[in-house]
Amino acid sequence: MVKHALKYGIAAVIAATVAHTAAAQDSGASRVSWAPSHSGSCTDCSLAGYSMAGWNLSKANYPGANLSSANLRNVTAHNANFDRVNANRADFRKADLTSSSFVGADLTAARLQGTNFSSATMSNATFLEAKLTGTDFVGATLTNAKFHRATAIRADFSAANLTDAVFDGADLTGAIFDNAVLNGIDLKNAAIGGASFRNVRFSGADLSLALGIDTADFDGACATVETLMPDNLVLTNCIRYESEIEPDQN
Question: Among 2-11, 183-192, 196-205, 235-244, whose mean pLDDT is lowest?
């Protein structure tokens, strides 16, 4: 009887495996290769709710994957491709995603506290209501990124390219934007108290309704005639500023 039970138990497992494989092939999604380093390919497949905490996903290829509510806490994923992923409410806390790509990714309400996105490519990414306290975006490309109502307290955007990024209603208290590219940035209703914007060019930016602007650091920053600013903020004209710092050619 035991042998028969084992026989039919093994047969059931094999049948389930075959059925799962067939379903994955029918869906057109590529399977994940999770050995030995957990890197692999998972194009347009679903990993919703999966736990991959602490895994090494470096150089993985997951464009278009569904990572909603997935647990990727403390993941190491250098140079990985997460373009167009749905990472709504995913947990990336303290993950190291250096030089990875999240172009067009949806990170709505994602938990990204202490995450390292340094040198990442994240153009057109959405961070609606994301938790970004202490997140590292140093040198990242965030053109046209949307940070509506995100919490980015003490986040570091130093030297990042934030051209046309939107921070409407975001909490940027104590955030660092030193030497970042902020052309066309929208800071309407953003809390920027204690934030640092040292050596920034506000070309065509909107700071008109920013909150806590009197405690932000604008040392070395300049603006253009298209920049919208409140009456209590006066910045040097960028053209004049650049002419003043040009080295003497004589």
Answer: 2-11
